[in-house]
C-alpha cells in the first residue's frame, strides 16, 4: 500500500513538472505583435523562451523594454505543426540573434568614379517586416577636406536570426567633390594642356550594395560592405574662364563604386 501511494505521488509530481515545463505562453510586444512561446526564464531585464514546434530547441532572448505583457496559458504541450505554412510562420517569427531594431554605426569608406575619396561616415538603420527589410541613412565627410555628402538606401537580409547576416540592397550615393577642367591647345605636331581650373561639382550614383553584419556580442556588430553602380549626374561638362573654354576631365566608361567598413551598436 505504501509503495502504491509513493508511485502515485511520483506520477503526480512528474505530471506537474511536465505541465510547468511545456506550458505555452504568449508574449505581446510594444508593437502589439503576439508571439506564442514557451517561457524558460523571466528575469528583471530579459525574457528567455523558445518557440513551440521549433525542433532545433534554440533559445531566444528578448529585452523587457520590448515586451508589453506576458499572457500565461493553461494549455500543456506544443501544438503540432501540420502544414508548410505553419512551419514558415514559425521561422518568420524567430527573433534576430542581436537585440534591437535600430543600428547606429560609424566607420570609414572609399568611394568615387575616377579618383577615390576617403571619408568618415555615421549611419542609422531601422529594421522592419520581421527584421528582413531595413532603411539606412548615412551622412559622410571627406578626410582632409571639406567635401561632404551622404547615402540613403534599403537592405534585405534573408536570415536575420543568424550570427552573420548577409544583405543586399540599393544605395543612392550623393557627394560634392573637386572637378578638374583643362584647356587644350592643338598644334600640328602635338596636343598639350595650357591651363587648368578646379571647381566643386555635385556627383551622384545608384549602387547595388552587398555585405554582411557580423554579430560579435549582444549588441556590437562589424559591418563590411561594397557597392557599384552607374552615375546619375556629373555636374557641368565645361566652364568658361578668361575667354577660354575649359573641358572636363573624365573617362569614357565611368562607374560609381564604394567600399566601407564600420562598427555598429544595436539598441
How would you explain this protein's 3D organization?
This protein has 267 residues and is mainly β. The protein has two domains: 26-93, no CATH class; 102-266, Porin, CATH 2.40.160. Helix content is 11%, strand content 57%. The chain contains two helices and 15 strands. The protein has helices at 2-21, 84-92, and strands spanning 25-29, 34-42, 46-50, 60-63, 67-71, 102-112, 116-128, 133-142, 148-156, 164-186, 191-215, 220-233, 238-241, 244-248, 256-266. The radius of gyration is 29 Å and the shape is elongated.
Compact overview of the structure:
The chain is mostly beta strands and 267 residues long. It folds into two domains: 26-93, no CATH class; 102-266, Porin.
Which short descriptors sum up this protein?
267 residues; mainly beta; Porin; 2 domains; eight-stranded antiparallel β-barrel; five-stranded antiparallel β-sheet; 2 helices; 15 strands; 57% strand; elongated
Distance between the termini: 61 Å
Mean pLDDT: 77
Rg is 29 Å
**In what order do the strands lie side by side in the largest sheet?**
6-7-8-9-10-11-12-15
Q: What fold name goes in the CATH topology slot of the largest domain? A: Porin
Number of domains: 2
The class by helix and strand makeup works out as mainly beta
